[in-house]
């Protein structure tokens, strides 16, 4: 069974919502003081464990990461689900982005929630909740999202950043400079700044690589310089969408070579450390539930303690996706297989070998993937 990871402390869902409430001088879940500007730095792939283990390469951030400044991310530990949680203040089951690739039941297909947006998967209807940026609009608080130009018009941007003015800035230095310009040109605002570099380096080389360490050092220097120039009343929170683990190629498991692990499976979604298995949607509900139970038991029997396995009914009952909107329920796999050991699951029938070169991976429930930093700077420092 998948372990319950329901945090009683601050959550990723509280971060941006609390920032808006800070600007509005309202009580908030993070107990942030009143601010004129609140900046959220979202560092893709920066797990708390990795930051602490490489503290010598990030002296500024590590020195400001107290034990209480580590929070839970979301399950699955993947970017689309986590950023949507940050920007809507709601759990994946509520906003509907419940994984990396998930079932679009109406069209009997898998859709990639990072880049698979099309006319049948509209951002304004697929993502089910209003964003914090839209709430800011209602309160006459300017909202800005700063990221590279390549993401400015993406489907995910329209789904999770709606209500914010998108500011394109390609290099890390340019993004921090853009944030400073927003602060200087407005009386108050909430600002979201996205940092992709560490996640990209981890996927390509691993988080233990020199490339990843170099990106961490650049980030640390940029944040230190930005924080050092903040004027009074400007608060900053640095957090992440998920952490990451390195999985060597010899730890890749080709699940399709064991017939009982794909018996009755129509689609395999999710990602290598968190598979979402979908059965034939035409099955009668009772038959489908029984088939899901049998498939889950097959995975438990074959893979043993290398995985956590649960059916859709079990994960919903356990609250791992939060409250689940009925419109999002079919997007969750009939069976969820989350890697417990340092392994990743692939289909040998995929002739493109997609993803097999990826070293840094995430998606599952380990502390390394789920625990993320919440560094408080400027007016939010403690």
From TrEMBL:
SUPFAM superfamilies: Alkaline phosphatase-like. One of its GO terms (molecular function) is hydrolase activity. This is Alkaline phosphatase family protein. It comes from Microterricola viridarii. Coiled coil: none annotated.
């Amino acid at each position: 069974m998948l372990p319950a990871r329901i945090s009683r402390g601050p959550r990723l869902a509280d971060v941006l919502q609390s920032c808006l409430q800070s600007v509005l001088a309202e009580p908030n879940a993070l107990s942030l003081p009143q601010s004129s500007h609140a900046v959220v730095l979202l560092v893709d792939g920066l797990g708390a464990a990795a930051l602490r283990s490489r503290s010598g390469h990030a002296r500024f951030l590590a020195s400001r990461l107290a034990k209480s400044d580590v929070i839970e991310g979301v399950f699955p530990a993947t970017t689309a689900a986590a950023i949507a949680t940050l920007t809507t203040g709601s759990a994946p089951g509520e906003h509907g982005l419940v994984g990396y690739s998930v079932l679009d039941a109406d069209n009997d297909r898998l859709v990639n929630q990072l880049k698979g947006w099309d006319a049948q998967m509209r951002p304004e209807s697929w993502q089910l909740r209003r964003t914090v940026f839209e709430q800011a609009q209602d309160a006459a608080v300017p909202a800005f999202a700063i990221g590279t130009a390549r993401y400015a018009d993406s489907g995910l941007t329209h789904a999770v950043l709606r209500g914010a003015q998108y500011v394109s800035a390609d290099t890390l230095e340019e993004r921090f400079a853009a944030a400073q310009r927003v602060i200087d040109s407005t009386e108050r605002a909430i600002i979201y700044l996205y940092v992709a570099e560490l996640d990209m380096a981890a996927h390509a080389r691993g988080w233990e690589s020199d490339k990843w360490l170099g990106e961490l050092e650049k980030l640390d220097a940029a944040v230190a310089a930005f924080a050092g120039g903040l004027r009074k009343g400007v608060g900053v929170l640095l957090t992440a969408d998920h952490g990451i683990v390195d999985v060597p190629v010899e730890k890749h498991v080709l699940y399709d070579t064991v017939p009982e692990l794909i018996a009755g499976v129509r689609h395999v979604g999710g990602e290598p450390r968190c598979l979402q298995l979908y059965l034939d949607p035409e099955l009668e509900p009772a038959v489908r539930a029984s088939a899901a139970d049998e498939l889950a038991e097959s995975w438990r029997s074959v893979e043993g303690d290398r995985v956590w396995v649960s059916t859709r009914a079990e994960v919903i009952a356990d609250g791992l996706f939060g409250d689940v909107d009925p419109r999002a329920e079919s997007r969750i796999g009939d069976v969820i297989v989350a890697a417990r050991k340092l392994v990743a699951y692939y289909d040998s029938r995929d002739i493109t070998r997609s993803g097999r070169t990826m070293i840094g991976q995430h998606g599952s429930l380990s502390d390394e993937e789920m625990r993320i930093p919440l560094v408080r700077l400027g007016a939010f420092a403690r």
